[in-house]
Write a structure and sequence with these properties.
4-stranded antiparallel beta sheet, 6-stranded mixed beta sheet, about 240 residues, 10 strands, alpha/beta, 10 helices
C-alpha cells in the first residue's frame, strides 16, 4: 500500500533519515522500532508530506512526489502525531467532526457513530473540552479524529508515549481491532515489546538508517533485538 524507496530527509546539513526503504502491505501492521532520536518521527512526517524528502514515496504504486498533504489525506493516508495536536479549547465532538471535514454530512455522522462505538469513553466525554482529558483519552481522541477521515493507511507516532501500562494495553488492542476492519497501519514505537506483539512485520531504525527487518515474531526472538530494545517500555 505504501512504499518508501531510498528516502532521505535532512534538517539543513544534518541527515536525519538516510536511504530508508520499507513497505506496508495492504491489511497489515508494520512497525518501526528504535530509540528516541533514531529518525522515526521524521520518516512518518516525510511520508505524510510534512517534510521534504529525497527518494521515492508511493501509495498504491503511484508516486506522491507532487502530492500535497490535503491530497494525501484524500487518498486515504492519516497521521496521528506524537504530540496528538488536539484543539484543547474545543470539545471532543468538535475535534472529531473537524477530522471528517472532507466528508459529506451523512458520512461524517456515520463515521462519528463508529468512532464512538470504538471509543465509548469519547462518547461519555463528547461535550468536554479536549484540553481537560487524561493522557489516554487524548490518545483515543487523536486516533478517533484520524479515523473520521476514513483512512486506508493509518500512521501512528508513539501512541503509547506517556501512558500507564493498562492504557497502553487498551490502545494496542484498539490497533489490532483496526487491522481487522481492513485498515493498514504503520506504527512507530519506542515500546518495542508492545509493538512487536501486534505487528506482522518490523523494521529497526538506528541513527536514521534501517539496521534490521523481518517478521515481527522473528525480531522479537532475535538476541540482539532483545538485548537492545525489549527493555524499552517495560512489560506493557
Amino acid at each position: 500500500m505504501l512504499a518508501l524507496d531510498s528516502v532521505s530527509v535532512a534538517y539543513g546539513k544534518v541527515e536525519a533519515v538516510r536511504g530508508v526503504s520499507l513497505a506496508i502491505p495492504v491489511g497489515s501492521i508494520v512497525t518501526v522500532i528504535g530509540a528516541n532520536g533514531a529518525g522515526k518521527t521524521t520518516l512518518l512526517n516525510a511520508a505524510m508530506g510534512l517534510l521534504p524528502s529525497r527518494g521515492r514515496i508511493a501509495f498504491e504504486g503511484a508516486s506522491l512526489d507532487d502530492t500535497d498533504i490535503e491530497e494525501r489525506v484524500g487518498l486515504g493516508l492519516a497521521l496521528v502525531p506524537e504530540r496528538r495536536e488536539l484543539f484543547g479549547s474545543m470539545t471532543v465532538a468538535d475535534n472529531l467532526l473537524l477530522g471528517g471535514f472532507r466528508r459529506p454530512a451523512a458520512e461524517r455522522a456515520q463515521a462519528l457513530a463508529q468512532v464512538y462505538a470504538r471509543f465509548p469513553r469519547l462518547k461519555e466525554r463528547e461535550t468536554q473540552l479536549a484540553g481537560t482529558l487524561s493522557g489516554g483519552e487524548r490518545q483515543m481522541l487523536a486516533m478517533g479524529r484520524a479515523l473520521m477521515g476514513r483512512p486506508r493507511l493509518l500512521m501512528l507516532d508513539e501512541p503509547s508515549l506517556g501512558l500507564a501500562p493498562l492504557i497502553v494495553r487498551d490502545i494496542f488492542e484498539i490497533i489490532v481491532g483496526l487491522k481487522a476492519t481492513g485498515v493498514s497501519i504503520l506504527l512507530v514505537e519506542q515500546n518495542a515489546r508492545a509493538a512487536l506483539q501486534v505487528a506482522d512485520y518490523a523494521y529497526v531504525m538506528e541513527l536514521g538508517e534501517i539496521t534490521a527487518e523481518g517478521p515481527a515474531s522473528r525480531l522479537a526472538a532475535d538476541p540482539r533485538i532483545v538485548e537492545s530494545y525489549l527493555g524499552l517500555g517495560g512489560d506493557s
